[in-house]
Amino acid sequence: MSVKIGNIDIGEFPLLLAPMEDVSDPPFRALCKENGADVMYTEFISSEGLIRDAFKSTQKLDIYDFERPIGIQIFGNDIASMRLATEICAKEKPEFIDINYGCPVKKVANKGAGAGILKDIPKMIAMTKEIVNSTSIPVTVKTRLGWDEETKYIVEVAERLQDIGIQAISIHGRTRKQMYKGEADWTLIGDVKNNPRMKIPVFGNGDINSPEKVQEVKNRYGIDGVMIGRGAIGYPWIFNEIKHFLKTSSHLPKPGIEERVRVCKQHLNHSIEWKGERLGIVEMKRHYSNYFRAIPNFKEYRTNMVTSNSKEEVISILNNVREKFQLIEF
Q1: Which domains does the chain have, with CATH numbers?
Q2: 217-237 pLDDT, tens per residue?
Q3: What ranges make up the beta strands (E) of the chain?
Q4: Would the pTM of this model clear 0.70, i.e. be above it?
Q5: Are 290 and 234 spatial neighbours (Cβ–Cβ below 8 Å)?
Q6: Is 136 exposed, middle or buried (0-12, 13-18, 19+ CB in 10 A)?
Q7: If we measure between CA atoms, which residue out of 185, 118, 108, 112 comes closest to residue 158?
Q8: How far, in Å, CA of 130 to CA of 133, rounded?
């Protein structure tokens, strides 16, 4: 049975690309969409930045028809600012407005935004209600289990968020205190999904790095879909691999060096098209090692790529990588 967020059909057991700062920009989203991702989210956008019309924030509003359905994700600690930011986002006509209640980094959480709001659940509820009431676009939430081990109130919190009108919830199976350490705990995500009062889609997030892991959490917890973050960085093929495995119980062949080089070049070209050559090349530097992390003795090539400021030079290095490692098996 297809999953719906509001009236928007997102398919049977959809795979969502997690919003990741400095990663899930339009060039990266294009690759993930091409490789089977069902739902996109922008990088998280500061509500205060949108209100001030700051370029870094407004640039993140760029969304394209080919990547729909897509949600614009916002964060902030001031309710009035979040409401105004929602109105700005609505003008871009995304399918969803997503609220970030999960970012654990200090500069966000210590200001009471992102996962910081998990220390003030009444404010979280009030802010969400204000946002839901300010737009006709479906509102979704991304959050964590709680602030720490003593405050894992996610089952109650999810129910309250549903009751004030959110249309879906994505839950990362860690507390804010854990950051990204240790293993994600999916049992509480399952408890949210299996709460008989929950009617909206519940998506799980955390440590999704293989088709087998998706099959396990799907069968064990009955969730409506999974959100994939770090598992897709440098590996957009993960979405189609998961879909194939869920359908056939068999694995697609791993992408070889030819495919990895091709997609890395495609990513570089998209990045330059969107940001211009100088910034496009700079922002690609964080991705090179991820595309080729399975290759031994790759350090020299990675160093050459990240120190290069010329598209032609990077392409030449990638061609050398293809020749040098053409016989390697993944």
Answers
A1: 4-248 (3.20.20.70), 257-324 (1.10.1200)
A2: 999 999 999 999 999 999 999
A3: 4-5, 8-9, 15-17, 40-41, 45-46, 70-75, 96-101, 139-144, 168-172, 202-205, 225-228
A4: yes
A5: yes
A6: exposed
A7: 118
A8: 5
**Two tokens, residue 192:** 């949210």
Single-letter residue type at 278 = R
- 264 in active site: no
Q: What is the separation, in whole angstroms, between the first and last Cα of the chain?
A: 35
157-205 pLDDT tens trace: 999 999 999 999 999 999 999 998 988 999 999 999 999 999 999 999 9
Contact 281, 268 (CB under 8 A): yes
pLDDT at 265: 97
Tokens representing residue 174 in the block:
């860690």
Task: Provide φ and ψ at 193, rounded to 5°.
Answer: -60, -40
Give me 101's structure tokens: 């209640």
- Whether 230 contacts 193, CB under 8 Å: no
Q: Which helix (H) or strand (E) holds 246?
A: helix 238-248
DSSP 198: -
Residues in a beta bridge with 97: 72, 139
Sole residue written with tokens 């990204």: 180
C-alpha dist (Å) from residue 127 to 75, 80, 160: 11, 8, 12
Phi and psi angles of residue 215, each rounded to the nearest 5 degrees, phi first? -60, -40
Q: Which is catalytic among the residues 32, 89, 103, 264?
A: 103
3-state secondary structure of 12: coil
Beta-ladder partners of 70: 40
